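User: Hey, my collaborator sent me this sequence without any context and asked if I could get a structure. I don't really work with proteins. Can you help?
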Amino acid sequence: MKTGKSSKSSRLYLLWGALSMFLCLAVIGAAAWTAFNTPVFASVLNPQPAAVSAQEEILWAQVEIAKPALAPVGAGILNVQPIDLPAPALEPSPFPSLTPAPTDTPTEAPTSTPEPTETPAPLSMEILADTPTPQYVPPTLSPQKPSVASAGNGVRWIDVDLTRQMVFAYEGDVVVNSFVVSTGTWRTPTVTGQYKIYVKIRSARMSGPGYSLPNVPYIMYFYKGYGLHGTYWHNNFGTPMSHGCVNLRTEDAEWLFNWASVGTLVNIHY
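Assistant: No problem. I've predicted the 3D structure and written it out in C-alpha cell form, which is a compact way to encode the shape of the chain:
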C-alpha cells in the first residue's frame, strides 16, 4: 500500500513541475516578443531609419515661412500723423501750498567818506600876498652845520636838507636860523624840488591813511598836501617820521611861520 501512494505523489510532483516550467517559458517568451517589437530594440538591431507613415509625413512636412523684407534705407518713411491727446486735467493737490517766507532785502551799508590827506582846512588861516622872489641860486654850504647870522641882507628862502634832516632859513646867502626836523619815511617820502609857500594856516586838522591829528599848529603848505608845520605828537626829530610833511618843533615852526610869507621859496633836496 505504501509503495502505491509514493509513486502517485511522485507523478503529481513531476506534473506540477512540468506545468510550472511551461508557464515560466511562456512568460519569458512573451516578454522576449514584446522586447523585440519595441522601437528601442529595433533601432539597436536595425540602425536604418524606420519608414515614416503617410500621416507622419504630412504632420512633419516642411513649410516655407515668409520672412519680412527689409526696405532699403530711404526707400520710404511711414507717414505717422500725430494724434492730439487732450491734456489731462490736473487734480487739486491734497497738500496745502507753501507760501515762501519773505526774505530780508540786504541794505547797503553807508560808505564811509575817506578823509582827505594833508590838505589845508579853513580854520585859522592867514593868507598873505605873493612875495616876488629872485632866481634861486644854491648857496655854498660846508658839510657841518652852517653858522647862523643874526640878520641877513637878501631875499628870504627856506632850504630843506633831507639827508641831514635840517631846515635852514636864508636871507640871500646868509643862514639866519636852522632847525632839526623829521621828514617823510621811505614809504611816504618828502617831495624834492623847488616850490613856493602858497598858503599859511595857524591851526588845522591834518588826516590821512592811518592818522588824524587835530589842531596841528603853524602850517605852511608849499606843494599840494606837503607843508612845514609844528609837531606835538613826537619828539624824535632828526629821524624821518612823517607822511611827507616837514615836522618841526612847535616853537621852531612858530618862528619860521612868522618869518616866512606866502611866496617864500622852499628848496628841498638830499
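In plain terms: The first strand starts at residue 124 and ends at 126. You can pass these C-alpha cells on to your collaborator as they are.
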